[in-house]
Amino acid sequence: MKKIEFIKSAAPSITNKEINLVHKAVSFGWGKNMNLYIDKFSKKFSKFVGQKYFLPTSHCTDAIHLALLSIGIKKNDEVIVPDLTWVASAAPIVHVGAVPIFADIDLKNYCISLSSIKQKITKKTKAIIVVDLLGSMPEWKEIKKFCRKKQITIIEDAAEGLGAYYDNKPAGSFGDISVFSFNATKLIMAGQGGALCTNNSKFYEKAVSLSQHGIDKSKTGKYYWSNEIGFNYRWSNIQAALGLAQFDRIKSLLRYKKKIHNLYYKHINQIEEISFLKNNKKIKNSFWINPITFSSKVKFSKEYICDYFLKNKIDMRPMFYTLSSMPPFKKFLRHSKNKITNKNSKLISDRSILLPNGYDLNEASIIRIKKVLLKLLSHKL
């Protein structure tokens, strides 16, 4: 009997290009070359997103933390964040002592809704974290116009958005500060890592200082001298080499993601009980991950559905849980603006799953996923 292969939820694309460049970094990336690949990656990435300054960090979460500190977010300030996102988008708000205010999403793109932002804003609102969720994009034109009018700083969480475009402008180009992730599941990866991008020199200089224990030798001329208490959020040259090799392949990686999306759409879209996210013409989705949403006819929970797939050797992931439903954020629900129910976020969270998105997928894998899905839906609903 032929062995059934396990379909992973994610898998990177590693070629000889990555292996060779990492080998060079390990062998020769020391001493005077200790920042060689970091500098090369920074220059290329900064140009790609159209932001003047680029600061690599150990994680994207660290980049969000630095962004909040760099723009001066303090205790009891309010920062609006979408209710439906990965927890790392909101955790740094709590780390700096600020109050996360959970906004609802737009069903057209699964990203933060401007109408909900307008409901949640107060005199204490200092920033908004806008997430390019799962490779989709929000209505950036309207959001930017509103935030400029209200003088509210935008942090664009483009961790999942790299390669996506809104109105022909790339993800990461919309925030006063934008952040990215290069962990092992992302469009391009470096094992781990993140980045902070901005056109604002003051934000950048503050972030650089804080990311290196508050040390700025260019200003003091002193080694090991901290001007303030900072953090160790630096990236390694070896990771940058891996990221650089991946970044050089970004067009082919995006083509692969689009191919996988088209195959999913071809084989699964005709199933009555499910729907795909459909963006408008302004949004060019990167298809980093393909979510599907079940109709109200399907009574199974997303956890049951994922467990069912796992029993069939397919690692299916549930849609993110709403942040407002999680214990760490319970104390913030007393805030009046968090008492407004985010109905769209809950609907998509409860009824959606995330299809496998690895670079090892092929049409046969997707046909198998479809068969298991049809088998699941054939049970009494």
Give a written overview of the molecule.
It is built from 13 helices and 14 strands. It is an alpha/beta fold and 381 residues long. The strands form three sheets. Strands 1-9-8-5-4-2-3 form a seven-stranded mixed beta sheet, sandwiched between helices. Strand 2, helix 4 and strand 3 form a beta-alpha-beta unit. It is globular, with a radius of gyration of 21 Å.
Task: Describe, in short, the structure shown.
By secondary structure, the chain is of the alpha/beta class. Helices cover 37% and strands 14% of the residues. 48% of the residues are buried.
Features:
381 residues, 13 helices, alpha/beta, globular, 7-stranded mixed β-sheet
Main pleated-sheet profile: 7 strands, mixed
Shape: globular
Q: Would you list the SSEs in sequence order as H and E?
A: HHEHEHEHEHEEEEEHHHHEEEHEHEH
Total number of beta strands: 14
In spatial order, strands of the major sheet run 1-9-8-5-4-2-3
**End-to-end C-alpha gap:** 32 Å
Structural class by SSE content:
alpha/beta
Rg: 21 Å
